[in-house]
Amino acid sequence: MVFHKEFQTAGKEPGLQVWRVEKMDLKPVLKQLHGNFFTGDCYVLLYTTAAPSYYIHMWLGSESSQDEKGAAAIFTTQLDDFLGGGPVQFREVQNNESLTFLGYFKSGIKYKQGGVASGFQHVVTNDMNVKRLLHIKGRRAIRATEVDMSWSSFNRGDCFIIDLGKDIFQWCGSECNSFERLKASQVAIDVRDNERNGRATLLMIEEGGEPQAVIDALGPKPNIPAGSPDDESVDRSNQKKGALYMISDAAGSMKASVVAQTSPFKQEMLSPSECYILDNGVDSKIFIWKGPSANTAERNAAMKAAEQFIKEKKYPRHTQVQVLPGGGETTLFKQFFCNWKDKDQTTGPGQAYSLGRIARVMQVPFDSSGLHTNKTMAAQHGMVDDGSGKVQVWRVEDGDQVPVDPSSYGQFYGGDCYLVLYSYRLGGREQHIIYTWQGLKCTQDELAASAFLTVRLDDSMGGSPVQVRVTQGQEPAHLMSLFKGKPMVIHLGGTSRKGGQSRVGSTRLFHIRQSSTRATRAVEVEPSAAFLNTNDVFVLKSSNTVFLWRGVGATEEELAAAQYVTSFLGGGSATEVSEGKEPAGFWSALGGKKEYQTSRSLQKMVKPPRLFGCSNKTGRLIAEEVPGDFNQSDLATDDVMLLDTWDQIFLWIGNEANEVERTGSAKIAKDYVDSDPSGRRGIAITTIKQGMEPPTFTGWFQAWDPKLWETDPLERIRARF
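The structure corresponding to this sequence follows.
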């Protein structure tokens, strides 16, 4: 088969690649514009993991033509063949994307009006004459849709972004809540940093407090209507059992015959020489399973068979389709089988909905000198290389940038802001990325100065660098790969200024964990035994001793990273302590022995955790999944959150959750478990309250911060404006 020239680079590096269908051809989309989609176009996306394994997404805009959809399908099939027929394929329809897809874009996705046929192009622009209006919808899966630049597009229940080029206004309706404002702010910051190269000014405004610039752009303001409920989400408790069909082309055309009407199924129902449809019905999702020995015609026609099945069943046009090769099944698929056994567990992308994504990664001795060449580091942020280019780091001090001693590159203090300039070569040309790292305990003046200095550095380089603003705790994997064999170390507070980092006589505890992208990070936490975790490594420095504590489930790479941390803490050589064999002095330094996370399922999990928000903000109580890898900041304080760790369910009650959410979420949790095709009825459901989380809950989040709730999350993100 003839393959498109763009596929020569497909899957060569971990991370995300995006192409747009342009006049029956494929053109790449710039990485800083990933997440932007023209509604009149179709796209092909490829996510490559470190294993490697592959995930292909065909995205169809609501206004795209039939020819463009057909071309996207052809390119998807070609890409699948080019990669050996092993990728998982997804059919994505605008406004109804899978959570796997949405998880690639933590700042949300943006729908732009028009398309290639109208002359609209994906470009990074410093043009300050932009004039557009974005409507922000969603609390967990964020979508920003370009709408008519008119007051008639507004409502009181949502947030909007009024983009006037040099000024970007986030308009908040009087009926929207703080979590919706928080998510809208992430979109506004992304527009400024990636589309405007950091050159625009952000301002959050409330309904009724519009400045003259907004009135000039939109005209006299009329009465704004109330918001309408968002009914896009599906309550998991309404999910029906699946049905299994076999696909055959024996009669010369694709036919689907019933194998079993209800789940759970048995794995032996799947013949390796056939293809099957698993119908998840009202959940608007169907799976195609391609047997490894199925004939080529059946395998290549899988997506077409799925679309024919959707039409015959009169299912919605936006029904999601996943095409799974034998051996590449996600856990969501395998849950429909009561006796599923894997020969080898496959690795999938770091996204929450593709439940089979985490492999049993072969443990190899840690080679710190090879950390910077680990190409998996580029996966999370989709950057172009493995971090082996040139690095320069400055600290923001008194409104200026002060060079950081190269010997301490990779160490970041919560009381500081930093500029990291990364330079590398691509296609014979030098390219640049500016990371602006902002500590959670830095001052407002330092935040403002870091933004100004980033633009100044960008200007001095002719406006060519890509800018990435990073908040402490949200570091992308590529940033963590830049420090030549050293893990990234994040100090809880203090500053790297002379004397600012010394805490003589104090007790300090560092939590070392390897992420799903195999990037290793050391994060300082409060020195308490409650923060220990059986799956990780910790470094404890007391006034006269340094302990290196190794949990039962820790990896060699985490251990080697911890040894690096001990090298700069001082206090002499570290005493290595194995879990369960701790001396009395270890517990004494931590203020006594306390309960901590002892479940080893974090390391062994074939079924990674899932996080849902239970909310009635839409007018009815629903459970909506958080896409992508979650963290503590995804816990909405005005909701009830459901954390599924497979053998236990947690209900986390936010302080601002209303009575309906508090009382109704228990039923959602029970229905969620009872409706699971794998038959998990009767597992434990634990209810906990914000601010009183036990280690069995906090252990699923790296570097849990018990003081996070003391500051309004919206105020924290406003500081980045």
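The domain at 124-218 is CATH 3.40.20.10 (Severin).
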